[in-house]
Amino acid sequence: MSAPDREPARRSDAPDAPPPAHGNAWRALHLARSLEALERALLALAVEPSGAGCSSAWWWVWNPARGALEGWKLAHAGEPDSACRAEERVFADLELSPSDLPEPLASAWGVPASELVSAAGMPWFLAESSAAVLVRRGNAPFGVLVGAWRGAARAPALRAVA
User: Fold this and answer.
1) Residue 122, CA distances (Å) to 35, 37, 72, 118 in order
2) How confident is the model over 39-63, as a mean pLDDT?
3) How many Å apart are CA 92 and CA 23, to the nearest integer?
C-alpha cells in the first residue's frame, strides 16, 4: 500500500519548551518538522501515562483519492517504535470506507457502525475499552486516532492529545 498524498507539516511556531506536566513526547509533538515525526509524536503522547495513557494506539489516515481510511502507524505503551514495525506492516494493509467502519471508528467519523465489518477483526478488539478521535486538517478529515486501555477509557485525554 502506498503512502496517501500528504504534504509535510511545518512547525515554525513551535514553543521552546513543553509544559512541565508532559515529557519528551509533548516536546516532540510541538517540535515536529515532518509529518512522519508529527505522527510518531502523536502516537507516543497517546501511549504516554501523562498523555492519554493508552495501552495501545493506532493512527488511521484518510486517503481522499481512495475514499477510505487506511491503517498507518501504531504504538504500544512501553515498546520502542522499532518493536512495532512488523505489526505496522500488517496494519497498513487495512483499508475501510466510511460505510464499513466498526466502532469506535464509526463514532469518530460520525456514521453508524457497519453491520458487515466486525470490530472483532480490529486490533483493539480485546481491549477493555477503546475510543477514537477524528483529526482534521483545516476543514477536511485528516485521520483518526484510536486508543485502547486496559481499564476505563480516557476519551477526553485522547481528544486532548489529538
Assistant:
1) 25, 25, 14, 8
2) 91
3) 28
d(CA 82, CA 72) in angstroms, rounded, equals 15
Band of the pLDDT at 157, cuts 50, 70, 90?
confident
pTM exceeds 0.85 for this model: no
End-to-end, the C-alpha distance of the chain in Å comes to 25
Q: Peptide bond preceding 104: is omega within 30 degrees of 0, i.e. cis?
A: yes
Pairing state of beta strands 68-76 and 56-63? antiparallel
CB atoms within 10 A of CB 96: 20
- Measured CA to CA, the distance from residue 56 to residue 79 in angstroms comes to 10
2 grid coordinates: 502506498
Length of the chain: 162
CB burial of 118-156 (b: ≥16 within 10 Å; e: otherwise) equals: ebeebbbeebebbbbbbbeeeeebbbbbbbbbeeebbbe
